[in-house]
Design a protein that fits this description.
- Helix content is 46%, strand content 17%.
- It is of the alpha+beta class.
- The chain folds into 2 domains: 108 residues, Winged helix-like DNA-binding domain superfamily/Winged helix DNA-binding domain (Arc Repressor Mutant, subunit A); 127 residues, Endonuclease, Chain A (2-Layer Sandwich), CATH 3.30.870.10.
- A 10-stranded mixed β-sheet has the order 2-1-3-9-8-7-4-5-6-10, with helices on both faces.
- Helix 9 links the parallel strand 4 and strand 5.
- It is globular, with a radius of gyration of 19 Å.
Length: 252
């Protein structure tokens, strides 16, 4: 084990405290941050996680939104960005989370995977999908097309991001199911446009004509980073957008 791996091992105990994980989950996540993407067997080699436990541990991390995987044989697992993951716990564990964001965040940035190959990422759980979506929205530069039948996950910080995108002349087209009047009324207090649709039964976001975040059945999400796939979703969006109306409640 090299010096870098040993230095990151110090994150295992505070990870257990902040995330409520056992030592196997903490060690697995830390290993994915530092050395991922990895197959299950490769995690076993680099940690003390028993071979008989590794698949359960990885599936737990995926379900919690702390890891993703790409569907291949064998699967290769990726860590979710530790900054977004730990920020959610930061209010309760401010000091420890801040230290972890710095320690693991630096390792994550140094170990970002080459995305020139595979383009599809599986996101386990609603929280994992929302976390990745927020990350992509923060980085949007040109356009955001959104179909959102259930925007109740939007927080004030999300509205502020939409406001920022609108101010920066990013082409912003969020379409909300018209039955969500409470959320529409909340959006009206912020300065960005929104459209209503009476029959919205699917959720996806197309960002910068390249990234697509798509909610599948249940809570499973998929991220595509592929311009060709994004064009397909963008065409579908524009067909649905023809039947949407700009919200009367909106003051943008």
């Amino acid at each position: 084990m090299n010096q870098g791996e040993q230095s990151l091992e110090k994150a295992d105990v505070p990870l257990q405290d902040v995330m409520g994980w056992g030592k196997n989950h903490a060690a697995t996540y830390r290993c994915l941050v530092d050395k991922g993407p990895l197959e299950a067997g490769e995690v076993v080699v680099r940690t003390d996680v028993p071979r008989g436990r590794i698949y359960d541990v990885l599936e737990d991390l995926v379900e919690e939104g702390a890891a993703t995987f790409r569907e291949r044989n064998p699967r290769r697992y990726y860590a979710q960005n530790p900054e977004g993951l730990l920020q959610e716990r930061k209010e309760d564990f401010d000091d420890k989370a801040s230290e972890l964001i710095e320690t693991l965040g630096n390792a994550y940035q140094l170990n970002l995977p080459d995305e020139s190959g595979d383009s599809a990422w599986i996101l386990g759980g609603r929280s994992g999908t929302v976390r990745k979506l927020r990350e992509l929205l923060e980085e949007a530069q040109d356009s955001v097309r959104a179909l959102e039948p259930d925007p109740r996950w939007y927080e004030t910080s999300d509205h502020r991001v939409f406001e920022k995108l609108h101010r920066e002349d990013v082409e912003l087209k969020p379409v909300i199911w018209s039955a969500r009047q409470d959320t529409l009324e909340e959006i009206a207090s912020f300065n960005y446009p929104v459209w209503e649709h009476e029959d919205l039964n699917k959720m996806f976001y197309v960002i910068d004509e390249k990234h697509v975040v798509f909610q599948m059945g249940g809570d499973t999400g998929v991220v595509f980073s592929d311009a060709t796939i994004a064009k397909v979703f963008a065409r579908e969006f524009e067909e649905i957008f023809k039947h949407a109306e700009e919200s009367d409640l909106n003051n943008a």
